[in-house]
Design goal:
alpha+beta; binds flavin mononucleotide
Length: 210
Amino acid sequence: MSNEVLEAMRTCRAMRHLLPDPVDDALVTQVVEAGTWAPSPGNSQGRDVIVVRDAATKSAIATAIESALAPAVAAMERPDRTHRLMLDGTAHLLSTLADCPVLMLVCGRPVYPYVAPRESFVWSSIYPAAQNMVVAARSLGLGTVFTTFHGVAEPAIREVLEIPDDVLIGCLIPMGWPLRQFGPVNRVPVDQVIHEDRWRGDLRSVPPAM
Ligand SMILES: Cc1cc2nc3c(=O)[nH]c(=O)nc-3n(C[C@H](O)[C@H](O)[C@H](O)COP(=O)(O)O)c2cc1C
């Protein structure tokens, strides 16, 4: 076992600047397959991935999202570098969403527990799969970013993609070749996260500024 997986996770920054260049179908399939390897409650695997590559379909989705979200993002305060980078990146991503070569929507149906399916288990199936996909993409040199963009235009997106009513959308992940560098993620140090043998109060300081 090599530490390449750890390195991919350590440097898996949200990539909001993506080239419009196409991504080979085989690579897209590899990324989605990595998602299928994720665990789920009782191995119920109640998740599906919609891969959107058709230009007109991407454009319809992007237009619905951008018109709903871009004005709000433009108006959001940018009190420090962290917020400026994130919100400027988000604004850029919104304005280029239609040009991203691949949009992936990770969805799920309530199928677990089998006798009385609960919505919470849908999210526990979707998120490990989505994170596997994000890390797999990084390991292949592809940039991605987790988003909840679909939430601002869900009726329009459901209609365009013909998503059945009982299917929930967990996240929308744009993917493409990165325009910016991958690099170490900015996170709270591990010693502020680990509680040794008991809960320790005041362990966590605020996340460090970027
Ligand atoms: C569940 C989830 C939802 C997110 N939604 C968005 C989003 O809607 N738009 C966006 O630009 N980034 C989104 N992100 C990305 C986070 O903003 C990003 O991971 C975080 O700021 C850390 O940045 P880094 O991954 O580059 O280190 C989301 C991340 C997660 C895990």
